[in-house]
Queue: 2 jobs
Job 1
Amino acid sequence: MTSEQTPTASDSTDPRPRRLTYAAALAGLEGIALAVGGLWMLVEGLAGDPDDRGSAVTGGITLAVLALLPLLAARGLLLRRGWSRGPAVITQIMALPVAYTLLQADSIAIPAGIALAVVAVAALVLLVNPETNRALGIRGPGGAQGDQK
């Protein structure tokens, strides 16, 4: 092994913590929801009668591409890759303003906003948990890992 290669957290024989599995499931759920929403917007933009076909198609493609971030993060979390926590946390932080905007609506979007806020906060709590950090091989400040109990 060269000095540039470092063992990943998945090389350990420890079982994956449930918190990590739950965080991956929530990130995957968000990714699937984005992909479905993007494909729905794309189909509606192409086959339906939108006010602005270009905007509908562009929005659908954008959502479908954005779905890749949480889906890749979920896969990385399941495989216990340390890099995957960053994209997963970014996804949750981006979801909070969206949830807030949905909560400000006077429509059926309010339950969607509540659900999104609950998922984002729960995923953030799971992702910053010390057990998750240890499972992903993320070291604390100063390079110390797992010294505190």
Note: Residues 1-7 have pLDDT under 50 and may be disordered.
Job 2
Amino acid sequence: MSTTTAAAPLTIRDAETLVAAASRAAEAAGVTVSVTVLDAGGHLLAFRRDDRAVLISGETSTRKAYTALQLNAPTADLVDAVKPDGPFHSLPTALSQPLLFIAGGVPVHRDGRLIGAIGVGGGAPEQDHAFATAAVEALA
């Protein structure tokens, strides 16, 4: 009989570390952003919007985090999958929950298990992805 141990869940301290690291990376690049951290169940653990970040960045950061969590993949890796000839082309409109296939969402793993996700919005997609990735690396 094999036993599996559960990975420790994402904590509020972890979420604060993720938000702070993403915010530092964005600030260093001179970009104002919103950052959302969700736990493994898709529940909000932390959110921060820079004073001058565009208002929609709050919504996009949350949708990016949710998408990365649900598909257990960085949203940057999913962009081509939802193009008209892609295998998931109908996915953005098929579900009641709002998915967003723009780079900036990254799943968070611990001990090989999915424990949450981070989403960053407000910069160019490749910038948001870099800020989210930097945050995940800072947590590791």
Note: The CA atoms of residues 82 and 91 lie 7 Å apart.
